[in-house]
Amino acid sequence: MTLKIYNTLTRRKEEFVPLNPPTVRMYNCGPTVYDYFHIGNARNFVIIDVIRRYLRFNGYQVQFVQNITDIDDKIINKARAEGCTTEEIAQKYTRIYFEQADRLAIQRADSHPKATDHIPQMLTLISTLLDRDHAYVVDGDVFFRINSYTSYGALSGKNPDDLLEGARVEVDPRKENPLDFALWKASKEDEPSWESPWGAGRPGWHIECSVMAMEHLSKTIDIHSGGADLIFPHHENERAQSESATGEPFVRYWLHNGFLNINKEKMSKSLGNFFTIDQVLERYDPATVRLFLLSAHYRHPLDFSEENLQEAESACQRIIDCLVTIDKLINLWKANAQSEVTRTEPPSDLTARGQRFLEAFLEVMDDDFNTARAQSVIFDLVADINLQRKELPDVLPASLLDERYVTLAHCVKVLEELLSILGLQISGPPSVTHDDMTERLIALLIEIRSMARERKHWDIADTIRQRLQDMGIYLEDHPQGTIWKKQ
Ligand SMILES: [Zn+2]
User: Is residue 309 domain-resident?
Assistant: First the structure.
């Protein structure tokens, strides 16, 4: 089975063939940094994170770029409302974006370029479009001429004539075609601006992403992603201006996720029916939130409700319970299991059981990243691990080659690998890896330290405490005696 991805441009699932394998170049439209992001935005960030992890598991070298839009009407308005500069707003919410993304275990991109660091490149791209007659200047504004690009509307599946009819945009009489869009906007009073050959101004939103994708990846990238609300006009316009400038295909696979709904309406800032990720993380832990966000196929709508989050929470608890039960028992065998969990691992008699779950997981993930079904495979595996555990005696066998333990340990390794592909950081309590001997040696050191303290040999006592701490073992002195904890 090979990986298939639904391509918004062709409206079908296509076999995934990157331009220069094993490299995969991926670009995702990142946050506009003017506020806390909401859980609907988080859905996009988490899905892209899982796709990136999955591609890496499959041996691809993923180059991933996610931009930061740090100049925009919303940022300008927020700065005015708060009486500070646009830079201050952008810096504050960029920091908050990364803090929240880190909490959700979203791995940082290889590069997070900022729009305002790329003004010269934008000016160059706009000049190219003007030279090739794909754009025109009116009073310091530069517009893209959509009639010069025959494929306009192909990505969104919209016919320009229908768009014109349906367009409720205020028609700017200076435009040749009402659908022409701004590449460069002449600056208004009190707005940040940059010098350009057409006068002081600032870039349009669409040109930012074209420039940053091409600058940090390539003229043609493999995957470009975003929420479904970005298909039109943002991605349609990105595609038009990029391909008109380079004469090459801009993106091989356009990937868009569905909305997060609340009471059957799309969650959005403009409708005011949103929960910030901060509010959600106050009540649910990150793994629960991720499990919830991945509980539907990414292209389908997902309903945000207390009930659905609680369901994800108890599902998470099932995984934790499973890992806690096997934790102490199986660490020894896991450490001794020879093979890593990989796509191509040849199953032996002892690993065939775990391998079956891995293959089932890969099959559904290869089918356009069906995380909903991938979660079902994880829960089947959890149930199977619980069953195997129940059938084992409580007394550990002496031999590390005991088949039942080797099979169970391998299944646990597979489970951990699948959890990490979905970015679910779930673990039982800190694993108990010390054996009796370690325990007794630590007790002996504590005893020697007490003797040193009684004789006022503080240097010896402190050395013991410090050296143990260096190994992650913390001593706590109580009236009843000293106890130790591993961190
Ligand atoms: Zn974008």
Answer: no
Output DSSP code: residue 471. T
What is the Å distance from ligand 1's center to 463 Cα? 56
Q: Report how far ligand 1's centroid is from the alpha carbon of 234 (Å).
A: 7
Q: Convert 362-395 into a string of H (helix), E (strand) and C (coil).
A: HHHHHECCCHHHHHHHHHHHHHHHHHHHHCCCCC
Nearest Cα neighbor of 198 from 116, 123, 128, 121 is: 123
Q: What is the mean pLDDT of residues 408-430?
A: 86
Regarding whether 67 and 189 lie in a shared domain, the answer is yes
The residue type found at 84 is: C
Q: 280 lies in which domain range?
A: 4-303
Coil, strand or helix at 20: coil
Question: Ligand 1 centroid vs 197 CA: distance in angstroms?
Answer: 24
Residues that place a CB less than 5 A from ion ligand 1: 29, 209
Could you tell me the pLDDT band of residue 327, with boundaries at 50, 70 and 90? low
Task: Compute the distance from residue 199 Cα to the ligand 1 centre, in Å.
Answer: 25
For 178-204, write each residue's pLDDT tens digit.
Answer: 999 999 999 988 889 999 999 999 999
Q: How far is the CA of 29 from the centre of ligand 1 (A)?
A: 4
Rounded CA-CA distance 93/100 in Å is: 10
Residues 46, 34 contacting (CB under 8 angstroms): no
